[in-house]
Design goal:
With 222 residues, this protein is α+β, with helices and mostly antiparallel strands. The chain contains seven helices and ten strands. The strands form two sheets. Strands 1-2-3-4-5-6-10-7 form an eight-stranded mixed beta sheet, sandwiched between helices. It has a two-stranded antiparallel ribbon with strand order 8-9. It starts with a helix and ends with a strand. The relative contact order is 0.14. The N terminus is likely disordered.
Length: 222
């Protein structure tokens, strides 16, 4: 229930009102036409009272158009821990997501104490073709197409390709994954993928995918 409420608050934050001043950081360009901008989110006490002390959203933009990648960073009011939420509507490679996330880190460090990073929330595996292919294969080899409980799922993910990939991002910051959770976890048959990924070429996707309300990642210091 706590995880559900946390995800709900994250969703509200990503749609909350923002101030009109946009900081464009030319030094953090992926190429000549791409940059990162940030918005300071206005916290609405009716939603976040007792939860967050500040929040920023970081966007990738091409010229003047916002691209399909938003990173929301939030600082907990009670312990100053940092929480990141990755948002995008269309599917992308997990490797690309990690590159975008890494490029946002210098800006995040301007606004937060990055050593306090405590959790990351990602889209569900189906939104990352490379990751969902690897996880589906690893899962089927171990469990077939039988759904498992959250304890077994956590153990599986801690020893999966997902954990190895995240480790490459976390090692420089002396962090590691403590545990995983997928709210409303289930196995999704390929025939339903189009509902979740409209306008996506699904021919290279596996026959099923791990699905749920995102992947919540708990972190700890190494």
């Amino acid at each position: 229930m706590k995880l559900y409420l946390y995800i709900l608050v994250i969703t509200l934050l990503t749609s909350c009102s923002e101030d009109k001043s946009i900081k464009i950081t030319n030094s953090k360009r992926q190429n000549l036409a791409t940059s990162i901008i940030k918005h300071k989110n206005v916290l609405n006490n009716s939603y976040e009272v007792g939860f967050y002390s500040k929040s920023y959203s970081y966007y990738r933009v091409f010229d003047k158009d916002t691209l399909d990648f938003v990173l929301c960073a939030m600082e907990h009011e009670n312990d100053n821990t940092l929480h990141l939420d990755v948002q995008h509507k269309k599917a992308m490679l997990f490797a690309t997501m990690l590159e975008n996330l890494t490029e946002c880190v210098p800006l995040i460090k301007e606004d937060f104490e990055f050593s306090k990073l405590n959790s990351i929330n990602l889209k569900s595996p189906i939104h990352y073709l490379d990751l969902t292919k690897e996880l589906s294969n690893e899962y089927e080899l171990r469990f077939g197409k039988t759904s498992i409980n959250h304890q077994k799922l956590n153990h599986f993910l801690l020893h999966s390709t997902l954990n190895k990939r995240l480790d490459s991002f976390l090692i420089p910051f002396k962090k590691q994954v403590k545990g995983y959770a997928i709210e409303k976890f289930h196995l999704l048959d390929k025939k339903y993928f189009g509902t979740y990924l409209p306008e996506t070429d699904l021919k290279d996707y596996p026959e099923f995918a791990l699905e749920g309300m995102g992947v919540y990642i708990y972190l700890e210091s190494r």
